[in-house]
């Protein structure tokens, strides 16, 4: 399985930070609480990443190939 | 020989070798046809080969190969739209306005050729909302054209730096606010109304028209073997504001006002990169040549400020921070902080590391290229004028304070 990437729909993201709670492995928060994607989503992280995507209250996260 | 184009942006347009070769005769269809003739009806495959041969790249700044974009649009499913973006969000850029006023039929020929090749029935033209001259020039030109079985729709863009970004234009066409949104697929694949959309700026379509009207050999007659053809530049220097058409490979010395090459030059506009004083002496108008030394031609804006490059870059950064569409957190929060950090560097209060950190924090973190472009310009001024940064940190400045200009 290929590694996937997380992309943020920036106009939708409102810095709720839930993604960071659900996927600290590849998400940090910046000075203002917006996510910083720090790495690729490796196969082991895919299910956690899916939870983050589904958990984002603004539907601002997507997993892309 | 120059033609004076008056407008909110008074700008001199000089006659050039190809795109601007017929401007003395005025913008009429008759004058255009007598100089350039009628475009044929090229087929997709040979046209793609010709585009590949001349290496035509988009002239909006990113420089994406135009043939690849055309091919992607043709291959995507659905009847495509053609969009000519004449909106030029960057206030320092006037080349598409100049084209609209002096050679509108060249732009329209390019759009019609593209529409025919793609089987499009509609061509959309996006004009700056506040520049009534450009809109009037395009509408006058459209009335002159015979029935081409193509519908033309004119849209007026907002007066905002990011209003010309591709996704902002597609939003405008859909009747939504003229602001960028996240794009999950290129417009060529999924653009206006979800259909493939060939979106490029005015100059790109004019270049396409020149290629089709005069053929590959004529196109190759200008420029260099590696970079054939010409480019439109909007130059702001001691000679004033002007739009010129120069063949690739032209020495900068021949393009800029006398001592321009010996002063710091901002190439590529507000999102561009800085050349050190004298650096352009050994360089030519060439994407590749400039790219090799981390310079960019962008959409062809050339600014030669009269004064300190750090101070000039700082005021541009504040302006760009204000032009954030405010939709994306990192851009909305980060650009004003970046502007303040650079202000501290310029005032000699330090903050260099913080400025660089903030550049990294906004890059690739917005729906459009605005944060990236802003960070590029800031990084470039800090790198190119490192000595000047240190001088400012000691309370100095090599450029006399009273000469600080606001040339843009
Ligand atoms: S959970 Fe969604 S809205 Fe919240 S910070 Fe993450 S991406 Fe943004
Ligand atoms: S990155 Fe900045 S300018 Fe671009 S859409 Fe987002 S907020 Fe607007």
From TrEMBL, chain A:
This is Ferredoxin. It comes from Nocardioides bizhenqiangii. SUPFAM superfamilies: 4Fe-4S ferredoxins (SSF54862). It holds the Pfam family Fer4_15. It comes from the Bacteria.
From TrEMBL, chain B:
It comes from the Bacteria. Pfam families: Complex1_51K (PF01512), NADH_4Fe-4S (PF10589). The keyword Phosphoprotein does not apply. Its cofactor is FMN; [4Fe-4S] cluster. Residues 310-355 form the NADH-ubiquinone oxidoreductase 51kDa subunit iron-sulphur binding domain. InterPro entries: ComplexI_51kDa_subunit (IPR050837), Nuo51_FMN-bd (IPR011538), Nuo51_FMN-bd_sf (IPR037225), Nuop51_4Fe4S-bd (IPR019575), Nuop51_4Fe4S-bd_sf (IPR037207). The keyword Metal-binding applies. Keywords: 4Fe-4S, Flavoprotein, FMN, Iron, Iron-sulfur, Metal-binding. Coiled coil: none annotated. Belongs to the complex I 51 kDa subunit family. This is NADH-ubiquinone oxidoreductase-F iron-sulfur binding region domain-containing protein. The lineage of its organism: Bacteria, Bacillati, Actinomycetota, Actinomycetes, Propionibacteriales.
